[in-house]
Amino acid sequence: CSCQQQRHYANGIQRTYITFNDLRNKNRSYTKKELVGYSMQAMYNVVSDVSNYYKFVPYVKRSHVHSYDDDGFKADLIIGFPPLNEAYTSRVTLEPMTMVKSECHDGRLFNYLLNEWRFSPGLKDIPNSCVLDFKVAFRFRSLLHSNFANIFFDLICDQMENAFIEEVRRRSGPPSIRSHVLESKRS
Question: What is the DSSP track for 81-130?
């Protein structure tokens, strides 16, 4: 997030102020590397199931897959978090069991949107584990939309990632190990 909380103490009273860094920046990104207690296949199966995103991903109101080819497909999505709704088409590239990448270049709210999930083997002695590399990056068309989203960006990214983990849990049962964040960066 480009906002920071600052705490000031005066007369024993704690006050928290939120400050905003660089309100002119239309680019946002979030990356996270995490060891999870699910297999690469279980994670891939959920993330590549774009046609059902509307059932379990927050803010996705509609998801329709079409135009299949050797590398993946196109998907029409409508996302919404009041007061904004955005309809766009993504090009989804699949590398079975290892990567799902979704890119959009024609959104009304943004010039560019990237969601990328990479899966690699987890712990050797725990086959139902994998390392998940998750990335979201986008560039808003409007500074107003960028600054509005800036307020909720961290929350939205966390909710999205958690929705996929919860869907894997729903389909596959409890994780084999507790998740461990290995690396996380927001800008």
Answer: ETTEEEEEEEEEEEETTTEEEEEES--SSEEEEEEEEEEEE--TT-SS-E
pLDDT at 23 over 60: no
Query: Taking the chain, what is the end-to-end CA distance rounded to the nearest angstrom?
Result: 6
93-94-99-101 Cα dihedral, nearest 10 degrees = 20
The amino acid sitting at 93 is T
Query: The dihedral of CA 35, 94, 80, 147: what is its sign?
Result: positive
Sign of CA pseudo-dihedral 50, 55, 57, 60: positive
- Cα separation, 85 vs 108, whole angstroms: 10
Give the pLDDT score at 2: 40
Query: What pTM was computed for the model?
Result: 0.81
- Measured in degrees and rounded to the nearest 5, phi and psi for residue 47 equal -65, -35
Q: Closest Cα to residue 19, out of 5, 36, 35, 38?
A: 5
Is the bond preceding 83 in cis, omega lying within 30 degrees of 0? yes
